[in-house]
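Dear all,

This email documents one entry for the complex benchmark we are building for the journal club exercise. For each entry we list the sequence lines for every component of the assembly. Then comes the predicted three-dimensional structure of the complex as a token string, followed by one or two observations. Please use this as the template for your own entries, and keep the labels exactly as they appear.
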Amino acid sequence: MSPAIAIIGSGNVATQLGLALQNKGLNIACVYSKTHNNAIALAQLLDTKAVQFTNEIPNNLDWYIIAVNDDAIAAVSAQLNVNGIVTHTSGSVSIEVLCKHERRGVFYPLQTITKNANIDFSAINILVESADENDAILIKKYAKLLSDKVLEVSSAQRQMLHVAAVFANNFTNHLMGIAKEILETNNLPTNLLDDLILQTANKATLQHPFSIQTGPKVRNDINTINKHIELLQSNSDYLRLYLLLTESIGSKTNH
Amino acid sequence: MSPAIAIIGSGNVATQLGLALQNKGLNIACVYSKTHNNAIALAQLLDTKAVQFTNEIPNNLDWYIIAVNDDAIAAVSAQLNVNGIVTHTSGSVSIEVLCKHERRGVFYPLQTITKNANIDFSAINILVESADENDAILIKKYAKLLSDKVLEVSSAQRQMLHVAAVFANNFTNHLMGIAKEILETNNLPTNLLDDLILQTANKATLQHPFSIQTGPKVRNDINTINKHIELLQSNSDYLRLYLLLTESIGSKTNH
């Protein structure tokens, strides 16, 4: 018999995971959501039943997938009295939030930030973790149904990955916003640096960014840096960022 | 008769511009370079003559293109005694460095940072400037031979564009380097965030980055921020960047 799963949650990850696992032949036994109407809608989509209360979730299923907001994982975990593996799907929450369950794990599809888009699981990394070696094998087996890129990582690694993602996404996005604002303020077309932006990202995936760093600090071009400092005098926030980032680049070079 | 040009310099921009303009029917009358052998090599490529001293450059040509390092523009400009338009090709140097020449201008192909790659001028923005209105028309005409994306911008605008490019390229590259270093340090594959990096850049070209900012600061997720601060304690440089960038993101949101 194919493994039976309870989907707990009704958002994007819950929906996409439910559809993808069902598509691979797993049996979605039921759906629970804090908002019962959402559970009903997702259950219809998956052609299964919605349950209204957590104590209606069967305790003898193989796998319980908690795909809810980070802040809600602990509460819903505490309500579950089950024997199968209980996993959450969060990138930033420790496995220990599920400590009530001996058979606990993490099943984290390292998806991009896009909301409500269809997730092509085969293209993304799935990061898994378990408190138990046999459960780890089982969770990896499930993950490999969806993707060839399955990786076992600890909660500590996953949390540092999350920090790294803040640098690689949130912070770079903010700096690109500043660049575009500078263009706007100076009556320049805001798409003027778009090719540079795309090439910068592309190159960073091909070589280590530190090894291909360019710019005035790497050239030790003090004149240009002083000129830039002068030009940024009217915006103390941008000036502070310029100074600190320039200093940080300097700490990675020989200058 | 087609306009006659002197190419001053023998580096990548000199070479690519010489080839592209010749290809459009302009007459490359001579090549000068501080290193005479380099001038000879480029002159051979362009099937024209190399001159060894600046006073051998004919003074009655239409256009003198100074495509040398930023720091060398002033010196070579001072050596020229000519009647045609004199332009440099730098993104960060003011037109006033050419003040000896009444007919001065800037012809700046806003290329990406790639060295020695073939430049497809038709795909890139050419930013032009001139001290004289008629010369501006002429320089734009030359630029439009190479690209449809010709834009007249002042030296002040060009210099702010350069600051913006530091934010959009140098600084984002550095942050992606930090992200990759964090992955390395934690024994995670360094390509784990590559999809995110590419999507972040792509999105930034489609919508204003400030309007699509994500992450803990935008969500006002203090718990996650405090967790990240704790995780970065061992690296004061990265911690300072985290704090300042988080604060800066906050200044663009409602929190």
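Observations: The helical segments of chain B are 12-23, 36-45, 73-79, 133-146, 155-185, 194-206, 222-231, 236-251. Residues 4-153 of chain B form a domain with the Rossmann fold fold (CATH 3.40.50.720).
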